[in-house]
């Protein structure tokens, strides 16, 4: 907790000097931290007394757990230019373009070692990325994706906690796994994708 505070304090000092992408990542991780706080409930503690000492045993507050950050998705108006930036200029490993008609997007993944970037480009007239790019002509961060160990249990509990889910059932995402999206107004302004681990 102390380390995270120091990192955020350091980033805040540098915030004025960082470029737009770094600023977007800073906002992403700040909002991600707030989201984690909201999604995790306090864990009840039961204390048991024995003759020599006492210990506490944590009881899980929910039947599912958040996992690792899978990717940060960036909407781009020109997919070829974005691929070239990450591959040719920055030297990253970049996937081939994959069409996902059910989601209305073309996707490209950029491997970063500890996570990925997902480049998104509109596919079809009703693409949610097309409307995003109408408001953000140069593109920008679209969503974050976090893995969960039980997407159905997550859906059930999130609905009880009044977190809106943008579909009734999970859809198959870019990695061939079930995904859901949480309403950004319920997640501190961030569109959050949950993916079955």
Automatic annotation (TrEMBL):
Q: One matching Pfam family, short form?
A: Glyoxalase_4
Q: What class of enzyme is it?
A: isomerase
| One annotated GO biological process | L-methylmalonyl-CoA metabolic process
**Positions of the VOC domain:** 68-197
Q: Which family does it belong to?
A: Belongs to the methylmalonyl-CoA epimerase family.
GO MF, any single term: metal ion binding
Q: Which InterPro entries match?
A: Glyas_Bleomycin-R_OHBP_Dase, MeMalonyl-CoA_epimerase, MMCE/EMCE_epimerase, VOC_core
Instruction: Tell whether Metal-binding is among the UniProt keywords.
Output: yes
Could you name the domain of life of the organism this protein comes from? Eukaryota
Q: Which organism is it from?
A: Columba livia
What is the name of this protein? Methylmalonyl-CoA epimerase, mitochondrial
What does the record give as the reaction this protein catalyses? (R)-methylmalonyl-CoA = (S)-methylmalonyl-CoA
Which key words are in the record?
Answer: Cobalt, Isomerase, Metal-binding
Q: What does this protein do?
A: Methylmalonyl-CoA epimerase involved in propionyl-CoA metabolism.
State which Enzyme Commission number(s) the record gives: 5.1.99.1
One GO CC term on file: mitochondrion
């Amino acid at each position: 907790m102390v380390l995270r505070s120091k990192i955020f304090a350091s980033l805040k000092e540098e915030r004025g000097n960082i470029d737009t992408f770094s600023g977007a990542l800073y906002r992403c991780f700040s909002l991600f931290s707030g989201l984690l706080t909201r999604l995790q409930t306090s864990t009840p503690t039961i204390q048991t007394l024995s003759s020599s000492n006492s210990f506490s045993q944590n009881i899980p507050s929910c039947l599912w757990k958040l996992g690792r950050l899978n990717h940060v998705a960036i909407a781009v108006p020109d997919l070829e230019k974005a691929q070239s930036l990450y591959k040719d200029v920055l030297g990253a490993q970049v996937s081939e373009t994959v069409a996902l008609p059910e989601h209305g997007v073309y996707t490209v993944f950029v491997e970063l070692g500890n996570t990925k970037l997902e480049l998104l480009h509109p596919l079809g007239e009703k693409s949610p990325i097309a409307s995003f790019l109408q408001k953000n002509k140069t593109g920008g961060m679209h969503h974050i994706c976090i893995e969960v160990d039980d997407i159905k249990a997550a859906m059930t509990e999130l609905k009880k906690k009044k977190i809106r889910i943008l579909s009734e059932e999970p859809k198959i995402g870019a990695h061939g796994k079930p995904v859901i999206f949480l309403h950004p107004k319920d997640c501190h302004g961030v569109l959050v994708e949950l993916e079955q681990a």
